[in-house]
From TrEMBL, chains A, B, C, D:
Keywords: Transferase
GO molecular function, one term: aldehyde-lyase activity
Organism: Frigoriglobus tundricola
One matching Pfam family: DAHP_snth_FXD
PANTHER family: PHOSPHO-2-DEHYDRO-3-DEOXYHEPTONATE ALDOLASE
Listed SUPFAM superfamilies: Aldolase
Superkingdom of the source species: Bacteria
Coiled coil: none
Residue ranges annotated for the DAHP synthetase I/KDSA domain, each copy included: 87-319
Name of the protein in question: 2-keto-3-deoxy-D-arabino-heptulosonate-7-phosphate synthase I beta
Enzyme class, UniProt record, top EC level: transferase
Sequence ranges assigned to domain DAHP synthase ferredoxin-like in this UniProt record: 1-67
């Protein structure tokens, strides 16, 4: 950490800065430039006190030079991590295709959609039982009944399932029915929920918040890892921007950006990122080419009757076409979508 | 609601649109323009199904024309609402000054800061016992011990107290010690927490999320109101932007924007919005002049030793100076900071 | 266009709205819903007067339903357009690889970089002679001397060249030396420059502004097309966002988004979008997979000595590796980088 | 400037970094921390070469510690600068009220609006003769005929006038008719235009670009100052954001933010910032309370017939009411709107 001293700081102030650095257990290293004095602060930047350096009178700027996350960092774990969801491997060359309807609505829809996505090559089934809705008057999900349906259909088609958990009080219940816990964008900094999922023994699918930087996303992953759960898969799903023709702005560069800093797998969710079925196939293709460890897509056999987010779902035949393209690109990239061993 | 039909839609598709509108209990009203056919949808836009209109084949655009919130709306309740926190009235011409340290650290600091802010004219005391921190390694708050200190100091200085609640499981506990529940920016769309606070019989201070629109903020207020709790005070505290010299971007126009659409009081928190003590006084003054129902400011007697967000706190003497300016501006605006009746 | 009337509008106001619509040459079409009256406005939305409808007393909302651009629209010209730069075809399955240093610095660097990028398969050479720099104290470009070097080197390697034009007064001069005019992000809404380039008989490379929506970009293209120049290639080069680890945020979805609305080719510039060489290859790959008509990359043989934007340039060997990947992906996508016919 | 070395940098790389720093005329100052080596670079950060430090192999991060602008900085000129437009003083306690229609449309409208705003206390008259319009099909302004009308009406009411200049070729013409040159938001980084206005002997009203940081704005002012023109007034007019209920997001904190770093006056334009007449009065009041040196407001006697931006104009009587409020707040702030000396 580096402290830049104000040009009008008094000698007493500078002495007080140096003394404070020492008091907090760091070693100060002073150097005087033409127009500014600089104090290098040698020691562990993760100490909680460092955030207050900028409040010491006479300090003009504070520059951190170390990353604030550890367990999530590439420096902590050099090779790419793979996360297993049931038998499905995500990361290190093995791609996930997580597909299904936005919400679990009833057995029939779930069954129909699962049949189609399984046939297309999806390897993990999704469906929401607890739905975070902007309006209190919108469909809030089927709750435990939805979890049961999701589990049953997943077993029927031999696919592990993932579903969102919104409340720390739901974690135990959801763990009983699902193979992976999803933390939604709105809860990326719901720290109590992160901690609770960090204590669960299920892998976690952590979505980037709508105004979260890549660093914020990795810090939220760190919350889960710090509780002992090593199985975190990150999801880029778009952030808020001024562009008003898409629901969010998909930050595709987050894929290589995360991979440079972290060993954790990262997948892309173009359904929520764009909100537009006409853009989803191109963004899935781009994700694979960018090096993502998988894709997350909503599929519905009758979007106009869906109980949640129908307009952003692909139709089953669109999904099948898409998978053909994605397999071709995966091959060109030297990786492949995970598939069960042929018998 | 208005549906714009694609120029290449078939007659069958248009018939299907009209039929679907009827099926869902709405009345369709068709008009043909030079280049587009339009279907007016007459009925209650709050019905959950309306979101799927854009998924009906042949529909190009959907324009909502009604607001998605009701209880929070100015149309539902024409006059300005006032919310009481203990004896303190917020709204309808009576201004709140919520001040205190970011976190409750110990009795001494809380007592010292409370003495100063009370003397300056603050009417509600704040201090966090549960702290939402980006890093799992940062100080997470004193928990119940902090709540006790906050309550004791509030009673000593005859000030109601407000503190953040982060987890639905904490609501009961926090209610025992505090006069107002704060929901932080990161939890603005933590819907289970909103519902739980909506069931509590304490007023709620709801902060705008970092990527929330004004409409999103009002929808989150609607969650609380819909559970029966009428006492919601909104807080503008800045949103994420590309400007990198301030912590967030204070959206000052949210004050009149909210007031035009909603009867709820709204205050401004320049401490979190700017993160810079040098900008806080000017932004407090602007808030009062913009018509806000109060201000929320962090104050600390020794920011460099604060356990959380020290660098954004005002010093006690800065707070005193500020209050002088704010009182003068409040008078010019025809309103005043709530103060206990003189004995 | 649809006008939504305020619920408290008087009958006189509604009559005045209808009369005004007629006066301006449109046909009004009134329908009354449960809570709002709506006036459909039938006629040409491109008439300048329409922007004032929202200023008529009693009007609450105005919803446009037609696109504000014409010549750039897919409806105006259904098939993909191809643009020729010298012999190089951009669009309709033929991909551009525009490469070179940020600025023309001297003959030697230009020659060295051109040799490498030509060998790698670049088909258009770039280099700036007039540089838009944030600081007045930074290198502003070599001007006409740079144009001469660029032209000479382009001829030596049989590559058409593109360079930026910043000032309407420079258009004639730049046209004498270059095969394509580039309009930079900062000038995307420099309307006099757009008009001047619209009168030139050279193709135009139009970069998206840092806060431009996709619609804004297409409107700026419309300015050029409206002057008679049909050869416009759009460039996605990132927009401003809160993410602070990349220079801008690459909006990859702009590629299919533009292609859905417009017949014009669009390429991607990951150098300016990310500002980070470690992210450029992945973003080039993603661009090809997303369906872009080409890529724009800065290459320098000694980035640390570059006179402009060195830190975002690829090294020659990185460029060679990248082209191998891109050719493989292009094949998987059923398109190819334009290359001169083998002799 | 501070260079942070990569943890895996070789000794040769570190030596090369140090050598390069020396070669460029700076003094290196090396210090080794627990996990990173740091090289302080002592010398003038404004040298163009510094931007390339991050391209030297082995360099992980570059932290600038000095501001990149000089003439615009508070360090260069400690007291607040005042700028004179005709007799009107802007800055140092004297407030501007710049008012008028968006565009000059004809003599009658200009005369009517000028009469009203003069009566209300406006001290500078505005009106556009060259209009930057998103659409090539929208009204582009009256050109020189508009300039003549503006000048005539300004003289009739004894008000200096300001109008926008969009093209470097127009500067001489515009200077003949106007007392102040306005550079619009879209041209804030039209560097050739900045230079041309820097050579003119008229004060310049420089609007913040829609995606410009405060630093970017000050760098653009620096372009004008560096050409010898000392009379620059900055304008905060809102930036692009995800909030879709206002045209832009007014960054009110830019006022004290600029004042802390620069001696130049800054005013606020809530008309363009919000695009909503219902929000303009509150934002004008907030601007005065925030310490702005004035306000810029569009006024039109018949917004529904305005040829440009009618929907964002105040009506004359709204303007009169507003000025009453603003004078009261200015008094509370210890400053006043400039007014001609009473005879």
């Amino acid at each position: 950490m580096i402290l830049v001293i104000r040009p009008d700081a008094t000698l007493e102030q500078i002495d007080h800065v140096i003394e404070t650095v020492r008091e907090l257990g760091f070693t100060p290293h002073v150097s005087r430039g033409e127009s500014r004095t600089i104090v290098g602060v040698i020691g562990d930047e993760a100490k909680p006190q460092v955030e207050n350096f900028s409040a010491i009178p006479g300090v003009e700027q504070v520059h951190r030079i170390l990353k604030p996350f550890k367990l999530a960092s590439r420096e902590f774990h050099k090779p790419d991590s793979a996360v297993y969801v049931g038998k499905v491997k995500i990361g290190a060359g093995s791609l996930a295709m997580i597909a299904g309807p936005c919400a679990v609505e009833n057995y029939e829809v779930m069954d129909t959609v699962a049949k189609y996505v399984k046939a297309g090559g999806a390897n993990i089934l999704r469906g929401g039982a607890f739905k975070p809705r902007t309006s209190p008057y919108a469909f809030q999900g089927m709750g435990e009944d939805g979890l049961k349906i999701l589990k049953d259909v997943g077993q029927k088609y031999d696919m592990p399932v993932v579903t969102e958990v919104m409340d720390p009080r739901q974690v135990d219940l959801v763990c009983r029915y699902t193979d992976m816990l999803q933390i939604g964008a709105r809860n990326m900094q719901n720290f109590d929920l992160l901690k609770e999922c960090g204590k669960a023994n299920k892998p976690v699918l952590l979505k980037r918040g709508m105004s979260a930087t890549v660093k914020d996303l990795l810090m939220s992953a760190e919350y889960i890892l710090a509780e002992g759960n090593k199985d975190v898969v990150l999801v880029e799903r778009g952030v808020r921007s001024f562009e008003d023709s898409t629901r969010n702005m998909l930050d595709m560069s987050a894929v290589p950006n995360v991979k440079g800093q972290s060993h954790l797998p990262i997948i892309v969710d173009p359904s929520h990122a764009t909100g537009r079925p006409d853009l989803i196939p191109a963004m899935c293709r781009a994700s694979v080419a960018a090096g993502a460890d998988g894709v997350h897509v909503e599929v519905h056999n009758c979007p106009e009757k869906a109980m949640s987010d129908g307009p952003q779902a692909l139709l089953p035949h669109q999904f099948l076409d898409l998978m053909g393209d994605l397999r071709r690109l995966a091959t060109a990239m030297g990786c492949e979508f995970w598939a069960p061993p042929e018998k």
